[in-house]
Design brief:
Largest sheet: 8 strands, antiparallel
Helix content: under 10%
CATH topology: Beta-galactosidase, Chain A, domain 5
Number of helices: 2
Shape: globular
CATH architecture: Distorted Sandwich
Structural class: mainly beta
Number of domains: 1
Strand order of the largest sheet: 12-13-14-15-24-20-19-18
Number of strands: 25
Order of helices and strands: HEEEEEEEEEEEEEEEEEEEEEEEEHE
Low-confidence stretches: 1-24
Distance between the termini: 28 Å
Strand content: 35-45%
CATH class: Mainly Beta
């Protein structure tokens, strides 16, 4: 009889703590700054046990409480306020989900998702279709790109559908230019050449919001029109996370994953541009009103150099603002060489500048970029610190405390 009662009790405990998402375990989270001073740093880690997605509260060793956002992949995220180089800090996670609000949140309509950081708009992404001006034909009706991107003061930093100059450039977007596929040479970048284009899935696969980050996951398709029948050469996934940031800047990450859709690779011969592009505000079309600065201290002469980050900025509608685009050390051929246009507000990282590369079946091509927006002039020292945070985040050790 006692054996039966113990078995029933074990089942009830499993149902209560395992299925409902309440904690049967508590966790100790130890964070180390490593070699860098940390300030408003994104901390992320995977739990050793399964945790229900949602928002929780963690308590630091000095009694401070912070929101922890757990995603559907069993990964926890929080913002570390300050931690000096060489120091560490411990947090305890125990209890039920938190009622903390979503400081980073999104709003959607039929065609766009707009993400805000503490009430300030950060970016908009077309999960549906844009509205094209009368001067452009229907080939430019598309989605699957980010525009506008805003500075913290609300200044628009990007451009799209510019009828006078490169209308195929769309804010932040992804495409390859010079390619070889199944004996053909489709161009997915210059859609007006009618050999290829990047189409979007016309829906969002997943969305997130919370006290730490908001964002989405979406899919795109690289379609080759240069043969007898259209063929999808690549499948592409975007993951975008906009993080809670202080008033001085916005911070968001873009992770692009591309996989071959057929048994044929997409070969990328050596070329000066192609990949994830950035098109600056229309006012920056005037080269005297647009500046570049690389992490090595170069301007437009930084074209084809290999750098950690690049700033592009100028006066937009009379307001001085800019954006820094940062490349992660895990990216192929890091530090990747850059394409800086000699006259126009165009930029992208272009690893194919170093020679032919290819996206092979069964071997995804993944790149990670972080974007920092700000008002006024760029601060190279601060951008170096933000890149260090991105490239070498704080170390984390997670352990159960009540085994």
């Amino acid at each position: 009889m006692h054996i039966i009662l113990r078995a029933i009790l074990a089942i009830l405990i499993t149902l209560l703590f395992g299925v409902s998402g309440l904690f049967a375990q508590s966790y100790q989270i130890s964070v180390s700054a490593g070699d860098f001073d940390r300030s408003n740093s994104v901390v992320s880690f995977y739990f050793p046990g399964e945790i229900e997605a949602g928002v929780y509260s963690i308590t630091g060793d000095n009694g401070e409480e912070k929101p922890l956002q757990v995603d559907r992949n069993n990964r926890g995220w929080f913002i570390l306020d300050d931690l000096s180089a060489g120091e560490s800090k411990t947090f305890l996670l125990e209890g039920e989900k938190s009622s903390a609000g979503s400081e980073v949140q999104y709003q959607t309509d039929e065609n766009t998702i707009v993400i805000q950081n503490s009430g300030r708009e950060v970016l908009s992404y077309y999960h549906g279709y844009n509205t094209i001006p009368d001067e452009l034909d229907l080939d430019y009706k598309r989605g699957g790109y980010i525009h506008p991107v805003y500075s913290p003061a609300g200044t628009v930093l990007t451009n799209h559908l510019n009828v006078d100059m490169h209308p195929h450039h769309s804010g932040i977007w992804s495409a390859w230019t010079n390619t070889e596929f199944q004996g053909r040479t489709p161009d997915f970048w210059n859609i007006h050449n009618y050999t290829g284009r990047v189409n979007h899935a016309e829906r969002l696969e997943e969305t997130w919001q919370g006290p730490v980050f908001s964002g989405f996951r979406s899919h795109h398709f690289f379609e080759d029109f240069s043969g007898d029948e259209p063929v999808i050469a690549l499948n592409e996934e975007w993951q975008v996370r906009v993080f809670k940031s202080p008033e001085g800047y916005h911070k968001f990450d873009l992770v692009v994953s591309q996989t071959a859709n057929t048994s044929s690779p997409l070969v990328l011969p050596e070329y000066r541009y192609g990949g994830v592009g950035f098109r600056g505000h229309k006012d920056w079309d005037d080269p005297d009103n647009c500046t570049f600065l690389t992490s090595d201290g170069l301007g437009r002469d930084g074209h084809a150099t290999r750098v950690n980050w690049t700033h592009i900025g100028g006066h937009s509608d009379g307001q001085l603002a800019g954006i820094a685009i940062m490349s992660h050390p895990s990216n192929f051929r890091h530090p990747q060489p850059v394409r800086i246009h000699p006259n126009e507000p165009f930029f992208n990282y272009a690893p194919q500048q170093l020679g032919e590369m290819s996206i092979e079946p069964g071997s995804p091509y993944v790149v990670r970029y972080r974007y920092i927006t700000y008002d006024g002039e760029p601060d190279p020292e601060k951008l170096d610190k933000l890149w260090n945070d991105f490239a070498y985040p704080p170390g984390v050790t997670v352990s159960k405390t009540n085994d």
